[in-house]
Amino acid sequence: MEHSTSAVNWQPVNLAKAPGQMLRDSLSHVARGADTVAFFQWRASRSGAEKYHSALVPHAGKDSRVWHEVCELGEVLGKISEVEGSRTQSRVALVHNWDSLWTTDGDSTPSEHHRYMTEVNRWYAACWRAGLSVQGVAPGDSLDGFDVILAPGLHVVTDAEIANITKAVESGAHAVITYFSGTVDELDHVRLGGYPGGFAELLGVHFDEFAPLLPGQTAALRSTSERIQLAGNASGSIWTERGRADDGTEVLADYADGPSQGSPAMTRRTVGNGSAWYVSTSPDDASIDSLIAALSDDSGVRPTVPGLPEGVDAVRRVGEQASYLFVLNHRPRGCRAGRRSRPHHRNRVNRWLFAAAVSWWRRCSSRRKHLMSALAKQRQHQILEKMRREERCE
Question: Which pTM was predicted?
């Protein structure tokens, strides 16, 4: 996974990474399956367009914070090198399609304020807040083993890809498809018969008109089912759609006002052993969180480690002989457990990383495996208790 030691050079303001952030980000990549941590560039250039892009060896040379953190990263990676070859095991698939990005982020669409990657990132962020491990997939990839499938803004989709997602739902997966999905085929030709085009039969909804919103305008969302409880101020932005739900499709929420008042905003339909959910707007973060919670109840998908403080995530890699649990602190500071004090300056890891690779067990005799599993759970409990004490002291 390639990234930078500190600031890049292509943003309006190129922020330098905080002390310890590069280590935390690198271990976050490793936790999610990276077997290599790579950087651009080796030495900071003296001239050219990228001369202000960070590097392993900065302009200041080896007598610098960045260089010392690079060396520290090397030491940490050496200590956890046995994770190489293991893989993350996610039960949530996030469908990504470059064709949808290229076709919807251009001009001549219902709203130039819809941005494909913005929607994809928002649904990923909701899973991250819920503690759910996510794997990115293409719409034609095998979906075996995934209990939840998220397909935000999947505008361009082939017949085979529609069949692939439909088959996964019928086999027991729970899929969420959002607005402007299924609308065109691989030739960018509109699928006639209304929206969401190729997904209308799977979702059990039919919309006949897009009704996008102006910048700053929102449409109030109203819960219509006990399956999902939205806040009183729940709203959608950017987009709404006018239409109806078919018989047998449950309307979870509708529009309380706006250009699509009364039309379904969130729906759910049981299909085979699974379910298909549709979201016809861009909901606020709290509403997406509520939908993810309801989806977790349906699918049985749970956080890797329940009960972590806000801003701390856990990811597990599994190999043939061992399992590795990474617990990472994404908050800007930490403190000593049980006392008020400044962050640990002597150990940069503690500022961003609470623990990495904290548990594993070997596949050997059943007795030893049971013992190692018990020890891992005990260690996990100790770490959680330490985190809770840290949370209280902040």
Answer: 0.84
